[in-house]
Design goal:
about 325 residues; 2 domains; MetI-like fold; mainly alpha; about 0% strand; 16 helices
Length: about 325
């Protein structure tokens, strides 16, 4: 068998005792262990472990992301379960303050929902929208950047002029424009159902230019190198040359841009939701939580706004620190 070829008598003995399925499983775990070992010996991991601020930022980001991902298991209460919400628990201060309740560590809002639980579920929506919009912008920008840099000529001119026109508008205004057009075209009920998808599209379409310009510049350099010319000589199609040869060599800067863009996407989503044009109130993100709490900020119920705002600031700061570290780690001149 290919799995045990070259493994000697030990693999044969394992197969004889455990069977083929077990050998395949052991082989998978062995490959995974080897991958982790090589990752631990890499320059990027070495750079990560030598930067205390980066390690703290990575830990904070991981805690927030895992809490959001497993919100039903982590959150003390489900803020969307009306049966578990009691209006008698409304506007309770944090647990360490007078009149606080130990069931609600960070207090409650005006509807009796625990702030900690709403933050966890709100971060789930904010991160989901952020990741989805970054992926959309990445695919669109990288694809157009590859096409622009490799094809050149009229295609390059048209794509870059469109990018220049979009750069003349702030991203937040473009996102507001897309959302406004969607509200005018779609019926109200349909827009409410598709609000998150419209938000993802509006944030993603406003961020593709950075990817396209970066990939285009790298493609202009890569397409004149010997390995690309050799691929042309042997008759490789242009699409395969772009995807198999050029794309892997231009992805380093793209990963840095994507990390930093994630923080910007989260901020943009929070801003739009704070302005009331983001996700619906029934699906609160960190932005809608801050918007809801501002009405009670000067009435003494500061925790409704302060804690979601603090989590948003910490998350964005941690992601930005990771982006700065990744930029330096992938720069060979700084090694």
């Amino acid at each position: 068998m290919p799995l045990i070829r070259g493994c000697g008598w030990m693999a044969v003995a394992v197969m004889a005792e455990y069977g083929q399925d077990q050998v395949v499983l052991l082989g998978t775990w062995a490959r995974l262990a080897d991958l982790l070992r090589r990752a631990g010996d890499s320059d990027i991991w070495y750079s990560f472990t030598r930067s205390p601020f980066t390690m703290v930022a990575g830990a904070v980001t991981m805690v927030i992301m895992l809490s959001a991902l497993f919100a039903p298991l982590v959150a003390p209460h489900n803020p969307f379960d009306l049966a578990s919400i009691d209006l008698m628990d409304a506007s309770l201060p944090p647990a360490w303050m007078e009149e606080g309740d130990v069931r609600f560590l960070l207090g409650t809002d005006d509807q009796g929902r625990g702030i900690l639980s709403t933050i966890i579920y709100g971060a789930r929506i904010s991160l989901g929208v952020g990741f989805a919009s970054v992926i959309f912008a990445l695919f669109l920008g990288v694809g157009l950047g590859l096409l622009s840099g490799y094809a050149g000529g009229t295609v390059d001119a048209v794509i870059m002029r469109v990018a220049d026109i979009q750069l003349s508008f702030p991203a937040i205004l473009l996102a507001l424009l897309v959302d406004g057009v969607a509200r005018g075209v779609l019926p109200r009920d349909t827009h409410d159902e598709l609000a998150i998808y419209v938000l993802i599209f509006s944030i993603g379409i406003s961020g593709w230019v950075q990817y396209a310009r970066t990939v285009r510049g790298s493609t202009l350099v890569e397409k004149n190198k010997e390995y690309v010319q050799a691929a042309r000589v042997i008759g490789r199609p242009a699409i395969l040359i772009m995807l198999r040869h050029v794309l892997p060599n231009v992805m380093g800067p793209v990963l840095v841009i994507a990390t930093i863009h994630l923080a910007l996407a989260i901020i943009t989503e929070a801003t739009l939701s704070f302005l009331g044009v983001g996700v619906p109130v029934t699906e609160p993100s960190l932005g809608t939580l801050i918007n809801t709490g501002q009405d009670f900020l000067f009435s003494g119920e500061w925790w409704i706004t302060v804690f979601p705002g603090a989590v948003l600031a910490i998350l964005v700061l941690a992601v930005n620190l990771l982006g700065d570290w990744l930029r330096d780690a992938l720069n060979p001149k700084l090694r």
